[in-house]
Amino acid sequence: MSIEEIQQQCIQGRLAVPEAVTLIDGSLGGITRVEYSEGLNFKIYNHQGIFPLEVKGFSRKQLPRLHALAVLSYLRAKENKSNFLGGVHISSRASTKHHLDGIWDIADRYKL
Predict the structure, then answer these.
(1) pLDDT tens by residue, 52-73
(2) Strands of 1-112, DSSP E
(3) What are the φ and ψ backbone dihedral angles of 90, each rounded to 5 degrees?
């Protein structure tokens, strides 16, 4: 299954978010970096490439799962001891740069 298919299965609720992150991590040989900007881009990196994922066209009910996928992927890159983690910016209340409390709230709802 491609990471795009994993993302779709996760957003649709057919895969749990932690399971989707584990599948993506395994299929890429390790997540090393994540860049997520709300409504603009979602990219997951490994040691060999960049893998863009969809950020548009999701319903309001699906957005929390998309946010969780970005956050847990970022935390997996951190677990993988990556030096350049990237960043996740969801809102002015949830960002890895300035608002970590919002990031931890999302992570706590969808444990790895």
Answers:
(1) 999 999 999 999 999 999 999 9
(2) 33-37, 41-45, 50-52, 86-91, 94-95
(3) -100, -45
